[in-house]
Amino acid sequence: MYPTLSDLTKDIFGFSIPLPIKMFGLFVAIAFLVAMLLLKKELKRRESEGWLQPCRELTWVGKQISSWEIFFTGLITLLMGLALIVFARNRFSFDGDPYDGIVLMDLAFALILAVLVAFIRYYFKSLKAAGKPELKVISHWPHERTDTIIGIAAVAGIVGAKLFDGLENWSSYIAHPADFFAFSGLTFYGGLIVASMAILYYAHQKHIDKWQLADSAAPVLMLAYGIGRIGCHMAGDGDWGIVNSFQKPVKWLPDWLWSYTYPHNVSDQGVLIPGCTGEHCFQLPIGVFPTSLYEFVVCTLLFLVLWKLRKIITSPGRLFGIYLIMNGAERFLIELIRVNNKYDLGFVKPTQAELISMGLFLTGCLIVYVSSRKTKYNPE
């Protein structure tokens, strides 16, 4: 396993390159980047088909940058600068408290950097704002808001993922409340639900057709989830299956694809690896199902299906309904061989993901049924 990108480069090239990038975080970033590119491409296509229309808004042209914009630019730069300085001093490590051990010199350097970046932004914004400010009506197409949509999805998704993980592991967060602010421990469905609510609210505010946006995002969501799962597998973050003591069904199947012990996993679970020194020297004593790898393969195939269907299905919401059905079924089935916390409901003990996946499956069925009454998109 490769907890960091440095571990991967060392395995490939034989020497370590000090890159301060966590493997899971890297794949999350890749997932968001791919999502942004594909979503923008699909929104443009729907605009060319006449299914999406621009929103006309009153916008200030030539207006000077506000004091609040300058302040927040400087504040964000200050925090990022402090983080980078301390990470560099600690040999590019993201372990522990990133703001531990800050000295006056670090603060002064980061403050100078923050002031410089804020001034540069003020300068270039001032050049664009030359002349008298005017209030004009400008048309904004949905694809022009893709960056904002992805940004909302990232922030709301992480918050939702942490909230739902807190509900699933309440006792752990009560014992260690600081863990809530760590990047580990993210529940996908929590992120999906909260991010969807935030994006739908934004779409309503900007007069973007919600069903068309949902249909545009359906294939993208499936692929982004699959890419994220590869990050889980590469890092060995604990999102694996139950013990697999069964014999391989066919001889040609690689051992690591059937049962895997996740050596050097980032979560440090299992037993010590003989002769290993340094960090992450653990592996599972018995092989488990590599479920995160299975999900990547399945979700990639489902993405290809949805990507093909997007030009065939024209009923509003139907493609998104199919996505919910696929996603719910895939996650429910993988939960049967996946390690997870269970809720004791007396007669049954489901996991949080099983409950939500069943809800998404039924919701998808309902959306497909309702959308079957319409034959094509009706542009507003």
TrEMBL record:
InterPro entries: Lgt
Pfam families, A to Z: LGT
EC number of this enzyme: 2.5.1.145
Localization: Cell membrane
GO annotation, biological process: lipoprotein biosynthetic process
Membrane-spanning intervals of the chain: 12-39, 70-89, 101-124, 180-204, 288-307, 319-339, 351-370
Main location, first listed in the record: membrane
Binding site for a 1,2-diacyl-sn-glycero-3-phospho-(1'-sn-glycerol): R229
GO molecular function: phosphatidylglycerol-prolipoprotein diacylglyceryl transferase activity
Cellular-component GO terms for this entry: plasma membrane
Keyword Heme included in the entry's annotation: no
Pathway(s) it belongs to: Protein modification; lipoprotein biosynthesis (diacylglyceryl transfer)
Keywords, comma-separated and alphabetical: Cell membrane, Membrane, Transferase, Transmembrane, Transmembrane helix
UniProt membrane topology term: Multi-pass membrane protein
Keyword Transmembrane belongs to the record: yes
Family: Belongs to the Lgt family.
Summary of the function given for this chain in its UniProt record: Catalyzes the transfer of the diacylglyceryl group from phosphatidylglycerol to the sulfhydryl group of the N-terminal cysteine of a prolipoprotein, the first step in the formation of mature lipoproteins.
PANTHER family xref list: PHOSPHATIDYLGLYCEROL--PROLIPOPROTEIN DIACYLGLYCERYL TRANSFERASE, PROLIPOPROTEIN DIACYLGLYCERYL TRANSFERASE
Protein name per its UniProtKB record: Phosphatidylglycerol--prolipoprotein diacylglyceryl transferase
